[in-house]
TrEMBL record:
Gene Ontology terms describing biological process: carbohydrate transport
An example Gene Ontology CC term for this record: membrane
Entry's Gene Ontology molecular function annotations: porin activity
Keywords: Coiled coil, Signal
Similarity comment: Belongs to the OprB family.
Protein name per the record: Carbohydrate-selective porin, OprB family/SLH domain protein
Signal peptide residue numbers: 1-28
PANTHER family in the cross-refs: OUTER MEMBRANE PROTEIN ALPHA, OUTER MEMBRANE PROTEIN ALPHA-RELATED
SLH domain location: 58-122
Length: 552
């Protein structure tokens, strides 16, 4: 019950009197009626019993109330005239216990509420002056109890409100994903040898992920992920180029189960969220990829199309820290730091002395319905000797290691966009540019296979793609997707004989995701690499895929 109800008790005789007389049309003007309406708008309906509670039409049904008191007689008259008290099916408030004054006050209050409702509904034209006088006397007699009742109800409402806002039971929820992947590559090896990729046989691989999501406050999340995976047959060892690599490629070794991800995110205020992860965090766990095909389990088949490989992937990522800040409803700023050596205490490793990636991203939603989103990002990466992977295993060998095994830094810039042209048609894409610097002198070429390099050499890498998705084709929940792009390639290199990629590879993919039901979906598709390794002397390589996804 609201405080407003109790605050009008002292003025209640006048208020109720005005209401009753206005309802009878004998003593009230239209202005008084309007005043009553204003007062009634402040009153919250008092909550009554549940489904097992029956209406009582006579006080005599309340066997635990003595009929000898004048209060009883007055209340009986109100009950019988207006049907305003609710009791238990056996006709008592408290079984056979005596009715206390505070309990009587609660009954009186119920009658007051009922009469107020009748007035508000303009159905109280039969209200009598005698009833008004009885109400006035009863309210004066039980003023203390009514006031105490109001205090207790206010206190109870405050406690309930607090519990509703703060009550949370720490729980852990399990969700899982199982993937079956049938794949085979067709075509010549992309190494100039002329060997046929048809020698690589069709394979069926799998990935199993179990996510245990725990929340301690209702707004945070601790995710613990277990994974087992064995997906092979489509990377450089099988086709001569990483451009053919499946999005799911990888292995936990001999059907082993590993801790794949351990990450905690939590909000601070309404606009800021922090991330910390000792295992398994990549850049896209903090930065939104802003790509309709960004999902290893349900998105692109080829690794390249999943997200911008220069700014949203990194081989120098595992341990991660980050934050998301919502400037307003349309603008978000993300920052993050990642390293793959954060658990290694050796010199040249650790959180801040080994390989790392660090960056910032800004995203803007455009249009009245936020149908378009554009994001810009910058990520700086450092790779120690023997660890360099600029293209994140999606481009040519030269774009992955522009200076061989030498230590390098790269300053990478990315642009991502998505546009919902309609409820069923979505466009997306990305562009990436990387400026790579060599950090080691190697006059004898021991790190590059015989090509001398100096620590002031630099190279430039570019990449880009575009995609289109059509939703609900033939069946609700289905997605037909087409994508085309240029995997990472070196367009300039100061390191003499290493030079740059002279040709240009084109990667094209088509896939159709078909939901069998709410938990199972099939995605048949294929992708082809034209001029693999950015070399026009290499024949196209085709990869056929059928992916089955189970979610629970």
């Amino acid at each position: 019950m609201s405080k407003a109800f109790w605050n009008i008790f002292k003025a209640a005789p006048a208020v109720v009197g005005a209401s009753l007389l206005a309802a009878n049309g004998a003593m009230a003007s239209e202005a008084v009626a309007q005043s009553n309406s204003d007062v009634l708008d402040q009153i919250n309906t008092y909550g009554q019993g549940g489904a097992s509670v029956d209406q009582i039409n006579s006080v005599f049904q309340l066997s635990d109330v003595s009929p000898g008191d004048w209060e009883f007689e007055a209340l009986r008259s109100l009950v019988e005239r207006y049907g305003c008290i609710v009791g238990y099916p056996d006709g008592t408030f408290r079984r056979n216990q005596a009715l206390k004054r505070s309990e009587f006050a609660a009954g009186l209050n119920a009658c007051l509420q009922q009469i107020e409702r009748l007035i508000a509904a303009q159905t109280a034209d039969f209200l009598r002056k005698e009833d008004l006088e009885a109400l006035q006397r009863l309210m004066a007699e039980f003023e203390a109890e009514l006031a105490a009742l109001g205090t207790r109800v206010d206190g109870l409402e405050a406690r309930v409100t607090f519990l509703e806002e703060h009550q949370f039971s720490t729980t852990t929820k399990l969700n899982g994903e199982v993937l079956f992947v049938l794949a085979e590559a067709f075509g010549d090896f992309a190494d100039g040898s002329g060997d046929n990729a048809d020698d690589t046989q069709a394979t069926i691989g799998y990935r199993v992920r179990l996510n245990f999501d725990t929340s301690f406050t209702g707004t945070d999340r601790l995710r613990t992920r277990l994974e087992a995976r064995e997906v092979d047959g489509t990377d450089a060892g099988d086709t001569g180029t990483d451009m053919t690599r499946l999005n799911l490629r990888g292995s936990t070794g001999d059907n082993n189960i590993e801790l794949n991800l351990l990450a905690y995110r939590f909000p601070v205020g309404d606009n800021l969220t922090f991330h910390v992860a000792p295992v398994g965090y990549d850049i896209d766990d903090v930065f939104d990829p802003n790509n309709p095909l960004a999902s290893s389990g349900g998105g692109a088949l080829a690794r390249f199309f999943d997200r911008n490989p220069l700014t949203l992937r990194s081989a120098a990522a595992d341990v991660g820290f980050g934050a998301n800040f919502d400037v307003n409803d349309d603008i978000r700023i993300d920052v993050g730091y990642w390293t793959d050596e954060g658990r290694d205490p050796d010199e040249g490793a650790g959180l801040f002395d080994g390989n790392y990636s660090a960056g910032v991203q800004g995203s803007v939603d455009l249009g009245s319905e936020d149908r378009a989103t554009i994001s810009l990002n910058y990520v700086r990466k450092y790779f120690g000797e023997g660890d360099t992977n600029i293209s994140s295993s999606t481009g040519s060998e030269l774009s992955t290691e522009p200076f061989g095994d030498a230590a390098t830094t790269s300053d990478n810039f990315g642009l991502q966009f998505s546009f919902d042209a309609s409820d069923r048609l979505i466009f997306g894409g990305f562009f990436g540019y990387g400026f790579v610097n060599n950090r080691q002198d190697d006059p004898f070429g021991s790190l590059t296979g015989g090509v001398p390099i100096s620590d002031d050499d630099s190279a430039e890498v570019i990449t880009g793609s575009a995609n289109i998705s059509y939703l609900d084709l033939f069946k609700e929940g289905s997605i037909l997707s087409l994508a085309a792009g240029v995997p990472p390639k070196v367009i300039n290199n100061d390191a003499g004989e290493l030079e740059e990629n002279d040709g240009t590879s084109i990667l094209v993919e088509a896939a159709y995701r078909f939901p069998v039901n709410d938990n199972i979906e099939l995605t048949p598709g294929a992708y082809v690499v034209i001029n693999p390794e950015h070399n026009s002397d290499n024949d196209p390589i085709v990869v056929g895929v059928v992916r089955t996804r189970f979610r629970f």
